[in-house]
Every structure is written in C-alpha cells, then in structure tokens.
C-alpha cells in the first residue's frame, strides 16, 4: 500500500474513533435523570437512600415527606452538601395524601427537565449490573423505550430479629428471591400521564414498554411469574421490604386501614405469608409476630414442626 494512502487511512480511522468517543461521552453527559419518592417514618434509612442515589448518578431527587406536621421531618437527615440535589415537599402543605398523587405531581411538574424519571419507594434501590447509570441509559436500545421496567429482588432478613444501625447493604447482603413485581423508569415529557405505584396510566396507545435490557415487552403485569422468566440481567430494584423481624413488625403497625378498612387484618396475614416466602421460618420469629401483630400463625408452627420433625413440646 502507498505510504501516503496508509497514513491517511490511519488518520481517518483515528478521526472517526475520536468522533465516536466524543459523541458517546456527550450523549452520556447530556442524559438527565431524576428520582421521585414518598416517605413516611423513614428517617432511619433516608440518609443511606439519598447518598446511594446521588452516588449512582441521579441529577436530582424529589422527596415527598408524608410524615405530617407534628412528626419527624425527612429534611432533618439531609446533609448540607446534598441540598442542591434534593427537593423535599411536605405533603400536607400540598394536599397530597397518597403515593400515586405524589408521583403524578412529581412527573407533571418536572418531567420536561429530565430524560428519565424513576419512581420508587424509600426502601427500593436501583442496581445497575457492572455499569454506571448514565452509560447504561445511553445504550441505543433505550431510544425506542418510553418506560423501563425493573423487577424487584427481595433480600432475606439474614435471620436478624432486631434492628441495628448498620447500613441496609451491610445488614442484608445475603440471599434474595426474585419477584414478578416491578417499578418503572419513565421517559420525560410524556403528556396525559399518571402513575399508579406499579403501573403507568396514560391516554396514548403508541408508547413502548421495555425490560432492563432495552427489549420491547407488553407492559402487562403477570402475577406469580416463573422465577426463571424474571429478567434481571442488566438492572433490577433491590427492595428492602422486610429488613429484620422487628422492622417488619414496625412497618405493619403503621396501619393500612386508611385504604383497606376491614380488610386490613387479612392484608397483614398476606404480608406475613410474603415475609416467610423470603425468610426462614423460626419459632422466635413466629412468636414475635404473633405477639406484636395479634395474629395466629398456627399453620407456620405446624409447617416448622413438620420440616424439623419436632414435637409440640420442643417447638415451644
């Protein structure tokens, strides 16, 4: 090959690679991502939540403080150095009473400023597998997506009965189970959109749901989905729903009668079923939950006895 042509070819190749690299980093840098959440009685965990998402790469966090005028304030745990990246709304001042209202309000007021908005609870942590947030979202496959669904994984309680002050990721770093429930990241500036905790409501039919790999999906919730079919290859939500037994009980005691009414007791039993789906059954946990929540867990006592070949005397 002619030496001049060879040099020109090398220069052209280097120029193309430079342009590609520059374009990639510009796209990566230009992506703006925010988070919307609502919290009540979360002051023990809010600091870890805020720091986690800022370090993950979120540009701004919008937090709806649902504690009420005479309760703890989430602003009490917000460090000074993060105040420019976090906005806290006290819900009683804005007549916001539930999560769908908060998420919808957050989206309508802020979506025009961001490319992507994640809606999560304060015990849910988005985890990106072997990548950074903005590099992950810069994948060209996500250009086709209006909504990205991230499945839950539920960490076990590590057999911790009582609360201690260590970070969540330190206390509950063992096994987990995958759930067919998910939370959604929404593309910015979609009109006529409202949020309903686990699903999106909108009046436009041509929107595209994607999984965590950027592949098109139906967007339909499928309950009790086979664990093998739950895709968490690139990203998922770590949901610290239960924590220790004591923290699980404390969360249940907040009460659900404001939206469940007479069905609250049945819902508590369903939560216990879910708790023991994720966590090991032990007599200590059973007795603790029975005493504090005033529920009968005879079926779990019998199951434990059968699994461990115990007599009634040994069980107690």
Description:
- It is a single chain.
- With 316 residues, the protein is of the alpha/beta class.
- It folds into two domains: 31-239, Spore Coat Polysaccharide Biosynthesis Protein SpsA, Chain A (Alpha-Beta Complex); 245-315, no CATH class.
- Helices cover 37% and strands 21% of the residues.
- Strands 1, 2, 3, 4, 5, 6, 7, 10, 11 and 12 form a ten-stranded mixed sheet that branches. A two-stranded antiparallel ribbon has the order 8-9.
- The protein is globular, with a radius of gyration of 23 Å.
- Mean pLDDT is 86; it is low at 13-26.
Task: List unreliable stretches of 5+ residues.
Answer: 13-26
Number of domains: 2
CATH-scheme architecture of the largest domain: Alpha-Beta Complex
- What is the overall silhouette? globular
First-residue to last-residue Cα separation: 87 Å
List the secondary-structure elements in sequence, H or E: HEHEEHEEHEHEEEEEEHHHHHH
Number of helices: 11
Radius of gyration using CA atoms only: 23 Å
Report helical residue fraction. Answer: 25-40%
Largest sheet: 10 strands, mixed
Q: Strand percentage, roughly?
A: 15-25%
Briefly note the CATH topology name of the largest domain. Spore Coat Polysaccharide Biosynthesis Protein SpsA, Chain A
What structural class should be given to the helix and strand makeup? alpha/beta
Q: Mean pLDDT, rounded to whole units?
A: 86
Question: How many individual β-strands?
Answer: 12
Query: What is the CATH C level class of the largest domain, in words?
Result: Alpha Beta
């Amino acid at each position: 090959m002619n030496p001049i042509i060879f040099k020109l070819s090398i220069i052209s190749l280097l120029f193309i690679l430079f342009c590609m690299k520059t374009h990639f980093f510009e796209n990566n840098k230009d992506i703006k991502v925010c988070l919307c959440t609502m919290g009540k009685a979360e002051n023990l965990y809010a600091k870890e939540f805020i720091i986690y998402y800022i370090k993950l790469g979120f540009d701004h966090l919008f937090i709806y403080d649902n504690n009420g005028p005479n309760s703890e304030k989430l602003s009490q745990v917000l460090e000074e150095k993060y105040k420019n990246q976090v906005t806290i709304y006290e819900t009683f001042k804005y007549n916001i009473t539930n999560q769908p209202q908060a998420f919808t309000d957050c989206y309508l007021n802020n979506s025009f400023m961001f490319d992507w908005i994640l809606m999560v609870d304060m015990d849910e942590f988005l985890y990106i597998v072997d990548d950074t947030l903005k590099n992950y979202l810069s994948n060209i496959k996500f250009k086709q997506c209006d909504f990205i669904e991230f499945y839950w994984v539920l960490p076990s309680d590590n057999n911790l009965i009582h609360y201690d002050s260590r970070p969540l990721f330190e206390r509950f770093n063992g096994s987990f189970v995958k759930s067919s429930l998910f939370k959604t990241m929404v593309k910015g500036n979609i009109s006529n959109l409202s949020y309903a905790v686990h699903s999106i409501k909108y009046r436009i039919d041509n929107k595209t749901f994607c999984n965590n790999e950027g592949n098109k999906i139906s967007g339909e919730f499928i309950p009790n989905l086979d664990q093998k079919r739950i895709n968490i290859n690139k990203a998922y939500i770590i949901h610290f729903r239960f924590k220790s037994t004591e923290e699980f009980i404390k969360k249940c005691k907040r009460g659900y009668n404001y939206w469940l009414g007479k069905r609250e007791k049945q819902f508590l039993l369903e939560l216990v079923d879910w708790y023991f789906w994720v966590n090991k059954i032990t007599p200590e946990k059973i007795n603790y939950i029975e005493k504090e929540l005033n529920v009968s867990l005879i079926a779990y006592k019998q199951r434990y006895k059968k699994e461990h070949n115990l007599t009634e005397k040994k069980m107690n």
